[in-house]
Amino acid sequence: MEYRRLGRSGIQVSSLALGTDNFMDPTPADECENILKKSIGAGINLIDTGDVYADGEGERIIGKILKESGQRQNVLIATKVDHGQRRPGFTLEEYDPSLGPNQHGHTRLNIIKACENSLKRLQTDYIDLYQLHRQSPDLPIDETLRALDDLVTQGKVRYIGCSTHPAWAVVEAVLVSEMKGYVRFVSEQPPYNLLDRRIENELIPVCEKYGIGIITWAPMAMGVLAGRYDDPDKFPKGSRAALRGGFYADRVTEKGIEVGRAFSKIAKELDLTPAQLAILWCKDQQGITAPLIGPRTVKQLEPLLPILEMQLDEKTRQACDELVPPGSVVANFHNTADWMRTVIHGVGPS
């Protein structure tokens, strides 16, 4: 089992982490328990969730399982405070008009309140890694970092990080933390897979320079690399694009499906499934601490666990580079990040 240091922190995390966006939406409670226990048994020690996952039910089921199983001390819980910037097209009314304008974003008010709520749902006294879920570009980073610093000082949070932030925002946060003596980011959590390699251009070099770990989401490109989709306009029953639509569906592109077919041939030659190769590729890319695997069932989880003991060979890496060159993109997995303006041929602007 390989464990990797998370940024400049002193903690070691497994080379695969468990993503739980499917917990309670659509994965039922008993299957969530089976997935969580089997992952921990295999050596995975980082469990990632968020306060918006299944409207908080994701955190609640994780807290319940860990408390009842006595496994809390054996894992690192990573959760997030909500999408700091509302997703494109969202209105306040879609959140809850009765809540008022201060119930979202990374203000001091909301961070402290959200942390208290997450602690209750998780049934724990502390959160190991507390992450900003998207950027709040209209807010002073000083306010956000000071609130996080206070939570660390109070012992409610151990480490802090961010998710889907631009490279410049990560650098800004590091510099402000160092100038003012605030707690410092130890990780960033961006989308990353063979179909969207844009973080290789700036974010990965920045994180390597400043000692920030990278925990990535969507390593299987939402199933496109696993061969789940045959048509960008027709989605298989039970797929994320079919269940959730919207920006999930927009990530399924004709070019991405084409790459997925060629990728499947490479996997077959290696006697791997496309899903296994997609995770392995991401795990062993430069600068990556751990990709998140997000199975909906134990049946989906089991074939992924052997990847913990595998290593990507250089010949396979080069074959994948020929499909999608380093730093390039054929499907937009940054489409919930307003700051990403890159135009993708056949996909359009973020």
Give a description of the structure.
It contains 13 helices and 10 strands. The strands form 2 sheets. It has an 8-stranded parallel β-barrel with strand order 3-4-5-6-7-8-9-10, surrounded by 5 helices. A two-stranded antiparallel ribbon has the order 1-2. The protein has a single domain (3-226, 260-323), classed as NADP-dependent oxidoreductase domain (TIM Barrel). It has 350 residues and is of the alpha/beta class. Helix 2 links the parallel strand 4 and strand 5 (76-81).
Cross-sheet strand order for the largest sheet: 3-4-5-6-7-8-9-10
Residue ranges: pLDDT <50 for 5 or more in a row? Answer: 85-94, 346-350
Give the CATH superfamily: NADP-dependent oxidoreductase domain
**Sheet of most strands:** 8 strands, parallel, barrel
The CATH topology turns out to be TIM Barrel
Q: What CATH architecture would you give?
A: Alpha-Beta Barrel
What's the end-to-end separation, in Å? 38 Å
Radius of gyration, CA atoms, in whole angstroms:
19 Å
Silhouette: globular
Helix content: 25-40%
- Determine the structural class based on helices, strands and strand pairing: alpha/beta
Q: Mean pLDDT, rounded to whole units?
A: 92
Q: How many strands?
A: 10
Number of domains: 1
Percent strand equals 5-15%
Record the SSE blueprint.
Elements: E1 3-5, E2 12-14, E3 17-19, H1 29-41, E4 46-48, H2 57-69, E5 76-81, H3 92-95, H4 108-122, E6 127-133, H5 141-153, E7 157-163, H6 167-180, E8 185-189, H7 203-210, E9 213-216, H8 240-244, H9 246-250, H10 254-269, H11 274-283, E10 290-293, H12 298-301, H13 314-323
Parallel strand pairs: 3-4, 3-10, 4-5, 5-6, 6-7, 7-8, 8-9, 9-10
Antiparallel strand pairs: 1-2
Helix pairs in contact: 2-4, 4-5, 6-7, 10-13
